From TrEMBL:
Residue intervals of the MYND-type domain: 1140-1181
Gene Ontology cellular component annotations, sorted alphabetically: nucleus
Origin superkingdom: Eukaryota
Protein name: MYND-type domain-containing protein
Keywords of this entry: Metal-binding, Zinc, Zinc-finger
A GO MF term: zinc ion binding
Cleaved signal peptide residues: none
UniProt source species: Suillus discolor
């Protein structure tokens, strides 16, 4: 398993989501087929909301294929009940009962009868996969494995069984259920998490969120009335059976309101003057029910319009099991072309994942997807670790520009929990190594607001911080020809990077870090073991071109000599073993000849019947139930501690965390190297009577070298296990057996339950793409500490005849910046363009010219300075005949809720919302100064526009906005805002805009002359800007029109014909194509009938705030709301780490860097660097006011 094995102590059931629904296709092209993988999927809110947002416009033709994975079978069982109810006729009439079934703890008779009837039907249809696939729901609802269907059937049978018991049994069940509900609710004060679902209006939802939570848990129903109707008395069977046991075990934080978009109820509807404070809890609940009804109706409509002779446009596939295993199984199935995989269904389970041959077999004409262009990981980020997620999802993420991996963090509100800490390394460095990077990190903004999190942190009980990130293939913003984007790093630096990752992944073994965690009362959740680290190395190995053996030898030496991780060497043997098993590297002492030589000399008793020893062996430990049972209360009290095994000798101790566990009985056959073992799982698990069986891989030489060894099951020491250590001793042992005890310890050549045809363990690798060995690539140079990337170097071979002649004749190549990610090398009148995976600075490039050998080597510093962005920060990229957006999600404007501007007091949330575009650093830059940051300039213009459009800046919003460069009186674009709307899926506000570029055509001039009288100074606001900001707006408007596009690009689209996007950066020509001009302008004419002549010339666009990134710099500090008079320069992305602003060199302390004597902000490593940077720095270098 990619994650350490956790003891399941106190567990919870999560049947209902705890974050608002999002559109899972928002980063895809409008008609692009969506192959979506949901890991830790939870309830189906994202699916039904995605179907709803794709129900109109171009998206209506999109095919949706969802694969849903959850460890909790009861979650999937409930989801299937919902989808099948929606597929049945009359779903709309039964909408209230469907709501009750899905969200209520207690049901009325009609809802209960509908549920039981549906469960009976599902039981009849689910005897096997063939029966299900040929049934009435098989055309759109599929099971990935037979085990999944069997588990769901077991649960549906339990639901039905609750109606077949005697009156006394029924009464006992109802009493126990009610008692469990009462005992499960939160024991602390108000639970306000549902207020998060109100997004930017969450400050108005606090009280109602707390009230609803109390009503929900007191009554068991979603209501504004604190009393449950007498007829609502039946326990909801779908909440009575789960991995928690045959009991109600729903998590105490559950609240159905969390799933929806409460801002729709709080924002004043168009035509209304109601203040959000006047919204009632009944209004909130009613809006949630309406949203659920709309979403469900969309699903029913899609399924009801199905043509029996064609594939369903909506397919939902279900898998019950572990997310990490499932990803590895899908990858293995695709590469091995087999539906039988080598990955267990889940931790504490013995069966391996066997995919349905009818869906995943090679003979299928339309097989189920095994790669995906959307992978949503829910909040597994918190539960399994982001590196584990990337390691298993990266190989199955499609290599397309629009492919996106979504992660969500929800666990901790601590500001110290930065993304870099979770990644165990610098964000840019890890992105280069792993091939995935948050798009917003590169662009330095996001369209998704987290204002609700800033408001939550103002409350006393804020313990969470919600952050949703969209990860893209690195280099996609420039459409690299190879989206796997191979890189070259010197072996010594790569070894240094690996060692830093190693130290960070296992920081819980650092004594100083552990003591700090104890002082801060941190739990010290551990997500990684040595196999996790090796799987990361395996991903990197397939991406880099380097001397791999030299890299690994240097890393090996660093780990052997490490003194930071006090217990690090205890896991050294496991590390070497996993390096071998995953085919990453073999240390010298693990070679087969050395193992055989030791065996020939030593001949330990346990190997008396072995003829040949392999490099690695599987050790199986059987823990008798009577020895484990007394420890269960102490283990449960420790929460979810990590289990591990130790091999302890007289003077040695080696620990192994990559273990497998299951409750069951073991049967062995054969002896010596022919010995095999079969485990029969006890499905009652910890509640049964079977022993606990544990197995793990070890280097053979470890067993041969030591004559007296014990095999120990123990608990990994963390701050959370202190109480357990007080009772069990500092070694945290659970059970110990001698290696020679043949009743309790078995040594095998293969793992238990391995068939005769099972491939060797070292063939089980994560990805199928081969290791890069040659080819054009970017050479990456890191800083001396091997933490952050400094420069890219690439070699350009000159082969074009004219360029060769220019070079040999002595011409000096010119390097021009083409975009943030690309350069052009100019020789004579010819040029070559080269893209790079991250932004670069061509102005600081250095050249090495080999005129005789006809090549040029270019060294380019990276450009990752906060605030230092070019005008092309909104990439729109051709993709498969369509256009892809790299860092701005698509919006269905007609599904975004418009709100009223009539009552300014009801808009008190607008200015704080748009103000979060500015980081605290940006706020301190006085508005009258030149910022030197194109992004900040755009943000300030957007802030002005939203202030005007909302009517908060002046009494009445203007009719028109005219943008022009300050040095040029000519207006380059005009646009008209018809509505401000709520993009509820992103908790943001957007402007429904109609854009008219100032391109000189007779028709446009004639139309404008007819409306000119309506566009006087009082009705038009002019926004002045510099040339670079003007260029940025031309890029932005292209992206803005593309984001909400409901029309198709024509065959003669200017983007296609001219082959460039935007079409121009000149102020007197149109940057956007004409395909959308005049399309869907009915709402424009309705809002502004006096501007009807302009309708054929305007194109709809969506303009939204560009929010600052709270994981990169401080955002939303109340003390910084008022800008000071002190200017601040654009800060390095890690200014707190004391980085030279010129070369990026990192220092351990500020004393070792020179500080600018004028602004007292920017630091340099030398006077040379300061002189080199002065040309750019002097624009924003301002002395602090006294």
């Amino acid at each position: 398993m990619a994650h350490p094995v956790l003891w399941r102590g106190k567990t919870f059931f999560y049947p209902i989501g705890n974050t608002s629904a999002v559109c899972l296709t928002q980063d895809l092209c409008p008609t692009e087929k969506a192959d979506v993988l949901l890991l830790g999927c939870g309830d189906p809110r994202h699916i039904i909301y995605t179907v709803y947002t794709n129900s109109t416009g171009l998206q209506a033709s999109r095919k949706l294929d969802f694969t849903c994975c959850d460890l909790e079978g009861a979650v999937i069982a409930r989801n299937v009940i919902l989808f099948t109810l929606l597929a049945d006729e009359g779903a709309a009439e039964r909408a209230p009962q469907i709501w009750n079934i899905f969200f209520h703890f207690f049901l009325d008779k009609a809802s209960h009868d509908l549920l039981i009837s549906q469960c009976r039907k599902l039981v009849e249809l689910s005897s096997d996969l063939d029966s299900w696939n040929n049934g009435p729901y098989g055309y759109f609802l599929r099971m990935c494995t037979g085990d999944t269907l069997a588990e769901l059937r077991r649960l549906w049978q339990l639901h039905v069984k609750t109606t077949a018991c005697s009156p006394s049994e029924a009464k006992a069940f109802e009493s126990a259920y009610a008692a469990d509900v009462k005992a499960s609710r939160a024991k602390f004060g108000s639970v306000l998490t549902a207020s998060r679902a109100a997004g930017p209006l969450s400050m108005y939802a606090f009280e109602m969120a707390g009230d609803h939570y109390n009503i929900y848990w007191d009554t068991g129903i979603c209501s504004a009335v604190p009393k449950r109707p007498s007829e609502v008395s039946r326990p909801n069977p779908t909440l009575a059976f789960s991995m928690v046991g045959d009991k109600f075990g729903v998590h105490y934080g559950t609240d159905p309101l969390c799933c929806f978009h409460l801002a729709e109820a709080l924002a004043p509807a168009v035509g209304s003057t109601r203040h959000p404070d006047q919204c009632t809890l009944k209004d909130i609940v009613d809006v949630c029910k309406k949203q659920f009804s709309r979403w469900c109706a969309s699903v029913s409509k899609v399924l009801g319009s199905q043509n029996p002779s064609s594939p369903s446009p909506l397919i939902i596939r279900c898998f019950v099991g572990d997310a990490l295993s499932f990803c590895q199984a899908l990858c293995y199935s695709r590469t091995a072309k087999s539906t039988s995989t080598l990955f267990p269904v889940a931790p504490w389970k013995i069966p391996y994942i066997a995919l349905d041959p009818s869906a995943y077999g090679t003979s299928r004409q339309s097989p189920a997807p095994t790669t995906f262009n959307v992978i949503d990981t829910s909040n597994l980020f918190d539960h399994v670790g982001v590196l584990n997620l990337i390691a298993v999802t990266s190989p199955i993420l499609q290599r397309t520009l629009s492919a996106t991996l979504y992660t969500e963090g929800l666990a901790s509100g601590s500001p110290e929990d930065t993304l870099a800490e979770h990644l165990c390394g610098d964000i840019a460095t890890m992105g280069l190594l792993l091939g995935l990077i948050p798009a917003c990190f590169v662009s330095q903004f996001t369209n998704r607001s987290n204002m609700h999190e800033h408001i939550m942190r103002l409350s006393d009980n804020a313990t969470q911080n919600h952050e949703r990130l969209a990860w893209k293939l690195i280099g996609g913003a420039e459409k690299l020809t190879d989206l796997d984007c191979p890189i070259d790093i010197a072996a010594e630096q790569l070894a240094g990077v690996f060692f830093n990752i190693y130290l960070n992944m296992f920081s819980h073994e650092n004594v100083r870090r552990r003591l700090a965690m104890v002082k801060q009362s941190l739990s010290g959740i551990v997500h990684y073991h040595r196999r996790s680290f090796v799987e990361i190395l395996s991903v990197v190995k397939r991406r880099v071109i380097t001397d791999w053996d030299s890299t690994m030898n240097m890393l090996h030496d660093k780990i052997q000599n490490d003194r930071i991780l006090i217990t690090g060497m205890n896991f050294y043997q496991e590390l070497c073993c996993q390096l071998h098993l995953l085919g990453v590297f073999d240390v010298d002492w693990l070679s087969l000849p050395k193992v055989q030589e030791v065996h020939r000399v030593e001949r330990p008793f346990v190997f008396r019947n072995w003829k040949v020893l392999p490099k690695t062996l599987c050790v199986v430990l059987v823990v008798p139930r009577d020895r484990l049972q007394p420890l269960l209360p102490d283990l449960d009290e420790a929460g979810t501690p990590v289990l591990q095994c130790d091999l302890r000798g007289t003077a040695t101790q080696n620990a192994f965390s990559a273990i497998s566990t299951v409750f069951g009985s073991i049967t062995t056959s054969g002896q010596g190297d022919g010995k095999t073992a079969v485990i029969k799982e006890d499905t009652t698990g910890r509640y049964g009577t079977s022993p606990l069986v544990v197995w793990f891989w070890v280097p053979t030489i470890v067993l041969v070298n030591e004559r007296c060894l014990s095999v120990v099951l123990s608990v990994l020491s963390t701050p959370a296990t202190c109480a357990f250590a007080m009772k069990r001793g500092l070694d945290l042992s659970i059970f110990c057996a001698d290696l020679g005890d043949e009743q309790l310890v078995h040594i095998l050549r293969q793992h238990p339950n391995a068939g005769p045809e099972s491939p060797k363990e070292n063939n089980v690798q994560i990805g199928d793409r081969p290791m890069k060995t040659s080819g054009a690539c970017t050479f990456v140079t890191l800083d001396k500490e091997c933490k952050t990337p400094l420069t890219f170097t690439t070699r350009v071979d000159i082969v074009e005849p004219d360029m060769k002649a220019s070079l040999t004749s002595g011409a000096t190549p010119i390097v021009n910046q083409v975009s943030m990610h690309s350069i052009a090398i100019v020789l004579g009148d010819k040029s070559l363009q080269f893209p790079f995976p991250l932004p670069i600075d061509a102005k600081k490039s250095k050249l090495r010219i080999a005129r005789k050998l006809l090549y040029i080597e270019i060294i380019l510093p990276l450009r990752l300075i906060l605030g230092d962005t070019d005008s092309d920060m909104f990439p729109v990229i051709p993709h498969g005949g369509d256009l892809a957006l790299w860092n701005m999600h698509r919006v269905n404007l007609d599904h975004c809720i418009p709100f009223s501007l009539a009552n300014k007091r009801a808009l008190g949330w607008v200015n704080p919302h748009v103000s979060l575009m500015m980081s605290d650093r940006e706020r301190r830059i006085p508005s009258e100064l030149t910022t030197g940051s194109t992004l900040l300039d755009v943000k300030r213009s957007l802030h002005f526009i939203f202030g005007q459009a909302s009517g908060l800046a002046e009494d009445k919003p203007p009719l028109c906005y005219a943008l022009r460069a300050k040095d040029d009186e000519e207006i380059f674009v005009m646009f008209y805002i018809t509505n401000l709307r709520l993009d509820v899926g992103s908790h943001s506000m957007v402007a429904d805009t109609w854009v008219m570029p100032s391109s000189p055509t007779f028709e446009k001039a004639e139309a404008f002359s007819k409306v000119f009288t309506h566009l006087g100074p009082s009705n038009m606001k002019t926004v002045g800007m510099g040339v670079e900001e003007r260029k940025a707006w031309q890029h932005l408007l292209v992206a803005a029109t593309e984001r909400c596009r409901t029309w198709e690009h024509k065959t003669n689209c200017e983007y296609r014909v001219q082959g460039v996007i935007p079409l121009t950066l000149e102020p007197d020509e149109s940057a956007i194509c004409s395909c959308g001009a005049g399309v869907g302008t009915e709402s424009f004419v309705k809002k502004y009938p006096m501007l009807r002549p302009l309708a054929p010339h305007v194109t709809r666009a969506v303009i939204s705030p560009l929010f600052a990134l709270s994981y990169l710099e401080k955002v939303g500090s109340l003390q910084d709301n008022v800008a000071s008079s002190t200017a601040s320069t654009p800060a390095p992305a890690a200014v707190v780490r004391n980085v030279c602003a010129a070369c990026g060199k990192e220092s351990g302390g500020s004393a070792s860097l020179l500080i600018c004597s004028r602004c007292k902000v920017v630091r340099y490593c030398s006077q040379g660097c300061q002189r080199e940077d002065w040309k750019g720095h002097k624009k924003s270098c301002v002395a602090p006011s006294s």
